[in-house]
Amino acid sequence: LAKLEGGHSAYVFTSGMAAIDAVFRLLRPGDHVVLSEAVYGGVFRIATQLLVHFGLEFSFVDTSSPELVLAAMRANTRMLYIETPTNPTLRITDIAAMAKLATERNALLVVDNTFLSPYLQNPIALGAHIVVHSMTKYLNGHSDSTGGCVVLTRPEDAEKIYFIQRSAGAGLAPMDCFLVSRGIKTLAVRMLQHNANGIAVARHLDAHAKVRKVYYPGLPSHPQHDVARKQQRGPGAMLSFDLGSLEAARRFLNQVKICALAESLGGVESLISLPALMTHASMPKEVQERIGITDGLVRLSVGIEDLEDIIADLDQALLYV
Ligand SMILES: Cc1ncc(COP(=O)(O)O)c(C=O)c1O
Questions:
Q1: What integer pLDDT is reported at residue 283 of this predicted model?
Q2: 44 C-alpha to center of ligand 1: Å?
Q3: Do both 268 and 179 map to the same domain?
Q4: Angle formed by the axes of helices 41-49 and 16-24, to 10°?
Q5: Domains in the chain: how many in total?
Q6: Same domain? 36 vs 171
Q7: Among 36, 58, 82, 303, which has the minimal tally of Cβ within 10 Å of its Cβ?
Q8: Does residue 22 surpass a pLDDT of 90?
Q9: Share of the chain above pLDDT 90, in %
Q10: Cβ neighbours around 8 below 10 Å, total
C-alpha cells in the first residue's frame, strides 16, 4: 500500500472508519480541522457526535473552493481533511491547491482516496501528507472483508499511527489482510473495467429522459471536470443521478435486478443506494440539502459486469419511474 500510494509506510486497521479515527487521534484538544462538507456520513458522525467531546473543532466547507478553505482556516487549524471525489455528489477538490494551503499553514493534508483507489489517483504525488482508504471498497474489491489503511509520508507521523494502532487494538486481522492482499493483485484489471463501465453508464444516464441530472467527474458538464482531468487518471466508477423524488427513486430501486441495493461500493458487483436514507441518514436534513443530497438522488457503484447487462437493467427499472 505504501508503494502503491508513493508513501513512506502504511498501517492497516479493522475498517476505514478505524483508520480515519486513528488519523484524528494525531491531534490534540483545541486543534481545529477543516473538512469537505460532503464527506462520507460516518466521518461527519464521528466528528460531530464523538470527537467534539474530546476538544477537537471541526469546520465543514466546500473544499472545491480554495478561497472558502482559506477563509475557514484559523490559527489552531492543524489538519485539512478532504475526500475527492466526494460521496455522493462527486465534487472534486484540487489536491495540489489544498497541499499548498496546508503546508503554508503548517497543517497536515489528509486525503481519503477510497473512491478512486491508487490506480486512478495518487494524492501524495500532489502534495498530500497522509492518504486514507476504506479497503472494504476497491482495494479488496470483492465485498467480503472490511479494512482501512493509513499511508504516511513522514516518519514522525508513522511512528504515532503505529503506536495508536497497537495501543487501541484496531489492527486488521490476518484473514482480512490475506483477502485484501489477494484483492490488490487484480486491482489494475478491475479498475480498468470499472472505469470503462463507469464512463459508459454515466453517458447513457446523462442522455436518458427520466434522469434529471448525473453527477460524474467524467462528464464535460461536471463543474470541476478540468481539475478531475488534471489530477485523476480516469473518472472512476462512482456516480449519482437524480430521479426527482423519493417516490421515483423507490420505484426504480425496487426494480433493479443486477444492481444490488446496498450501502457499500467498489466491489466487482454493481451496488446501488439512496444516500438520503442510507449512507447519509445521520446528516441533518439542512446539511443534506446544502450539499445536494436530494430525496431522489441515487448513488451507483458501477461494477465490472457486462456493460450491456448493466445498462439493460437500469433501462428496465427506469421504465417504472
Ligand atoms: C469515502 C469513504 N471513506 C471511508 C469510509 C468508511 O469505511 P469503512 O466502511 O471501511 O469503515 C467509507 C464507507 O463507505 C467511504 O465511502
A1: 81
A2: 11
A3: no
A4: 40
A5: 2
A6: yes
A7: 58
A8: yes
A9: 93
A10: 14
